[in-house]
Write a structure and sequence with these properties.
Radius of gyration of chain A: 19 Å
Low-confidence stretches of chain A: none
Protein name (chains A, B): Peptidase
Order of helices and strands of chain A: EEEEEEHHEEEEHHEEH
CATH architecture of chain A: 4-Layer Sandwich
Helix content of chain A: 25-40%
Mean pLDDT of chain A: 95
Strand content of chain A: 25-35%
Organism (chains A, B): Novosphingobium bradum
Number of strands of chain A: 12
Number of domains of chain A: 1
Number of helices of chain A: 5
Shape of chain A: globular
Distance between the termini of chain A: 45 Å
Oligomer: homodimer
Pfam families (chains A, B): Proteasome
Chain lengths: 246, 246
């Protein structure tokens, strides 16, 4: 499993992903699921992936044209004229990769190679955009009615985002909100694991405002993880008490 | 879908279930999923069900021997000498009901008639017990390492129970905790719906301490539902702020 969230704010985009992959609980590894590319002053594009790791790595390699010698490569993400075309391209590559592998493996390949992708970014002269790409290659775009997308293990960490999100919030608060959401998920599902990758894309900046890896030793994450339990209990006890009297 | 929780406390057992059944989002109904039986002064037994409604209603009917004329019926739950035997009996009826229906429908019946059951209760001279019964008829029992069971849509409402549960808590606090857990689930999954059924089984009482239906108009539930969002926000803002400085 995996947990990734992409969130749209008035001031830009915030992305967080875990790094655990597993093939059974007895076989876990750390792999990056967040990738980003930039043309300073012109575009900033990020991708997060969930699902079959061979599928998603294949899509990323195709985007970067790793079949060619380094000198001959053109990253097509850096040439697409709009974010809509970026999403279309990623969707096409994802659907083709899954289809090819399933087709090759016949009936027993059905559903085994599936994956989903979040695409986020901005190209100069246009607004920041956030898309969720389905395994079939089609996609949806976030709006302020539904301003965030989650992929992978989405349920444990969803209630706090639904309650805490505000489009005007600061990047710092958005990072805190995502850390709480990830902490709830990490505590409930072994197949989501530290470290986390964090990327903050400020509107019209066209390079990462902030990009880092959050490990288990991160003092701020530790504060959130231990503090949230206490804060939740205080919140719980601040609510009016139930009474058995009607 | 469904959401039911059974929780073991030092002072007894607390059970809550929703009442929504659906066959597609365009076909929803209200059905009771919580049942209880008592022999005053001797035993108090409760069951909550998730899964195929025809399956679970059939199990309940079998337990109450509804195939017979009312005068000839013996509720075998009221005759089993221990809670372990109650759980075994429910497991046997559940597995047989599912197996029979799947077998009758051949390959296309596989998995369509499945269900899970929580059994809770106490028989005089023994401790209160809490079991989760699988569709295969086998079952597990709660202990103070894992003091609650959830069936149905378990994920949205799990983090708050993990953080808020304490075996020494009052029944009133446990009801509040379950209401918060149900509220988070109701807000995230349309297939879990009001009203809720609540049952509190006090140790050595052998009749319900408290049993009622909580509707959308319930003033306490409304207070929890609206207050929890604000309390969560206060909890969130009480945590230390993230800083982009390393």
């Amino acid at each position: 499993m995996t947990y990734c969230v992409g969130m749209m704010l008035d001031r830009g985009l915030v992305l967080m992903s875990d790094t655990r992959t597993n093939s059974g609980v007895d076989n876990i590894s750390v792999f990056r699921k967040m990738y980003h590319w930039q043309v300073p002053g012109e575009r900033m594009i990020a991708i997060m992936t969930a699902g079959n790791l061979a599928t998603t790595q294949h899509v990323i390699s195709q985007l970067e044209e790793r079949t060619k010698a380094p000198a001959d490569r053109h990253n097509c993400l850096l040439e697409a004229p709009t974010m809509f075309q970026v999403a279309s391209l990623v969707g096409k590559l994802l659907a083709e990769t899954i289809h090819e592998r399933e087709h090759f493996n016949g009936e027993e390949g059905q559903g085994r190679f599936t994956a989903s992708i979040i695409v986020a970014g901005q190209i100069k002269g246009m607004e920041p955009r956030l898309f969720m790409i389905y395994p079939e290659g089609n996609f949806i775009e976030a709006s302020y009615d539904t301003p965030f997308f989650q992929i992978g293990e989405t349920k444990y960490g969803r209630p706090i985002i639904l309650r805490g999100y505000d489009r005007t919030m600061s990047f710092e608060d958005a990072v805190k909100l995502l850390m709480v959401s990830f902490d709830s998920t990490l505590k409930a599902n072994l197949s989501v694991g530290l470290p986390l990758d964090l990327l903050v894309i400020e509107k019209d900046r066209f390079e990462p405002l902030h990009a880092r890896r959050i490990t288990a030793a991160d003092p701020y994450f530790q504060q959130i993880s231990s503090g949230w339990g206490e804060a939740l209990k205080r919140a719980f006890y601040s609510l009016p008490d139930y009474s058995f009297e009607e």
